[in-house]
Amino acid sequence: MTGGPLVVLVGPMGSGKSTVGALLAERLGAPYRDTDADIVAAQGREISDIFVEDGEAHFRALERDAVRAAVAEHEGVLSLGGGAILDASTRELLTGLPVVYLSMDVDEAVRRVGLNTARPLLAVNPRRQWRELMEARRHLYTEVARVVVATDDRTPEEVAQAIFDAL
Ligand code: S3P
Fold first, then answer.
1. Is 2 contained in some domain?
2. Residues 6+ apart with CB under 8 A from 161
3. Mutate to test the pocket of ligand 1, among 46, 119, 137, 138 (most ligand atoms within 8 A of CB)
4. Is residue 1 in some structural domain?
């Protein structure tokens, strides 16, 4: 039995989970782990290929298993993929954990992520898709989070500091 993650970062793609997570881990002298990276390593293929070849539902099942393993094993900073909170069983795995939601408004999301087609959910009309994505997900991020940190006007260092202060 381990002590579990020190902090779990959730939030939309581009909210800075990986950058902030790595900075925070360094600051805490703790390891960093990212469930997207765990899935890519285990599958030996990119996430965009898993979406295209097997569909989103299959990816969410792989993600649920990755979150279950990471939550059980990892004692440092953990980042989840932006859509992990869509799955009810995955949300359940986060109960009682120190979850931080990195929030970002739609304009900032379009500026940061824009037309990056490596992110499979934003292939066309990124502004409309961002709006719909955030409308569908915002309440789920809020539901699992203990702390919300707005990232819009902050550098990754400032976001890491805000989380550090909130812990
Ligand atoms: C997704 C976000 C991605 C990745 C996959 C799906 C999403 O993670 O898990 O492309 O549904 O928002 P990041 O948030 O780390 O980019």
1. no
2. none
3. 119
4. no
Tokens for 21, please give them: 């997570």
Q: Residue 146: which domain range?
A: 7-166
Q: Is the CB of 16 under 6 A from ligand 1?
A: no
With a 6 Å cutoff on the Cβ, whether 126 touches ligand 1 is: no
If one counts the domains in the chain, the total is 1
Q: What is the CATH number of the domain that holds 82?
A: 3.40.50.300
DSSP state, residue 25 = H
Do 77 and 31 meet the contact criterion of CB atoms below 8 Å apart?
A: yes
Ligand-binding annotation for 82, yes or no, is yes
For every one of its 167 residues, what pLDDT tens digit does the chain have, with 9 covering 90 and above? 457 899 999 999 999 999 999 999 999 999 999 999 999 999 999 998 999 999 999 999 999 999 999 999 999 999 999 999 999 999 999 999 999 999 999 888 888 876 555 555 566 677 888 888 899 999 999 999 999 999 999 999 999 999 999 98
User: Is the C-beta atom of 36 inside 6 A of ligand 1?
Assistant: yes
